[in-house]
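A favour, since you know our structure tokens better than I do. Could you add the entry underneath, on a fresh line?
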Amino acid sequence: MEVESVESLTPLLQPLLQEADQWGEVLLLLLLLVGLEAVLSADNAIALAAISRRLHDPVRQRMALNLGLVLALIFRLALIALASQVLAFWPLQLLASAYLLWLCGRHLLGKDDGADDNGAGQEAAAADPAAPASHHGPGHPHHGATLGSIVATLALTDLAFSLDSVSAAVAVTDRLPLVMAGGVIGILALRLTAELFLRWLEIFPHLETAGYLAVGLVGLKLLLRLVLPAVEVPEWALLLVVAGLFAWGFSLRMESSSLPGPGSGDA
């Protein structure tokens, strides 16, 4: 009698068991996508933190990060929705590669040093006439950097990085809702990580350069994928290089007496 009861319940339980298996698979894939986003976005977070530092006021830095990443989220979701068309559109990949390489080269050539928020500098000078004037003249690339320009730069930078992370995510699963969920969680994690890097960039002087070198590495990866599609660079090799760059970035720590005080504009 008991066996018959169990057998009679099996057809009823089968859909529930299948649904449980599906939810387990979904959860596993989501965790994998979030982990993938976290691994691939470390260099992105440094780049976003370095860009937002051009606004020396911490309040404006956070506002720029918030607005920039809201735009970045919209761009990323659109990219995921159109992944099959966009990822096959080589001019966009070429532009993204050129942009990331330009960001890296601009920093390494010394044109990205000591970004200046002109408005904040003028306010500080008005409040304290004895304070030293900004050392960036009108010809400096960051002289007069505005909140709007920084927000746009943040959104475009994340979009360029997203071509790499979205292509990796789509390779894991073709379930767009899952990839989108991973992208949303990735943006939230990116916001928190960028906040941490804003503090660390003040403490570790090599970290910004290490981050930009990693940005250039992603740009080279996108370019190599276009020029030599048959050449497959192992992901572990790239991660190993990025880990080495980060180790160098954290290798030198500034003394406490050398750190800028709260609200200071100079890095």
Summary: The CA atoms of residues 157 and 253 lie 27 Å apart. The chain has one domain: 22-257. Residues 22-257 form one domain. The chain is about 75% helix and 0% strand.
